[in-house]
Amino acid sequence: MTSQAPHPFAGLDGAQASERTTKPRGAGFTMVADWGLGLQQQRDLTQMSAAHFDFAKIAVGMSRLYSAELLGEKIQHYVSMDIEPFPGGQYLEYAQVHGQLDRYLPACVEAGYRWVEVSDNIAPVTVDWKRQIIARAVEEFDLKVLGEVGKKEGLDNSIPLLDNAKACMDAGSSVLLLEAAEIFDDDADTARVIDEIVTAVGIEQVMFELPGPWISNVHHHDIHRLRRELIERYGTQVNIGNCSPDDLLSLEAFRRGLGVNAGSP
Length: 265
Fold this sequence. Notes:
Blueprint: E1 30-34, H1 39-49, E2 55-58, H2 68-80, E3 84-87, H3 89-97, H4 101-111, E4 115-118, H5 127-139, E5 144-149, H6 161-170, E6 175-179, H7 188-201, E7 206-209, H8 220-234, E8 239-243, H9 248-255
Parallel strand pairs: 1-2, 1-8, 2-3, 4-5, 5-6, 6-7, 7-8
Helix pairs in contact: 1-2, 3-4, 5-6, 6-7
């Protein structure tokens, strides 16, 4: 067996490099949003960067648009690279709104998913509904859950943020997804609640979701600013989600201190 040649830049690491963990990680997760990567694009991404991300969200209801064979291949390739794919939470909400909820979790298992997201972005659901779905996913289907809370687009959600977060975790979620924009809201009460959530849940289990261009007035420099502020506030091991595949390496570079411009506006 031939030994691997030493890296030409070995030892030229950023100041934060020693703080970054390797897989399997207990914190410092990165989640990539997969908005329809083809199989070759997916393989290019994992060949270059599999060591630097842990989850892949197959966004919204795109799981339905692949053939069964391609979806299975896509899921299994991520899993083979120690990356956990999961369907976007809005697909579960779609099933709820259209009276097809009982078909959703069995379909996730059949497809090969081992994680699911439970959110309340578009469906007018209660916190008890979230508890029940999370508990069913964990106890009946042996799935792990990312419970999502945060600002809603187009939905006036009356569930207090802290109560929503506690309900997700008490019901059995492994990770709490929280909109990153909540942290930098000018409202002092919101900032206080975010601190309470981090204290109650633990920073290792909170994953902050970056906003995207699908939200009005969100630009690329806003996303870079938010991820920089997350790392400055919570450290290099903060969990960050909804990263664009094109931004994955620059995010990791900024985590490791390998270039100020990797995270600057």
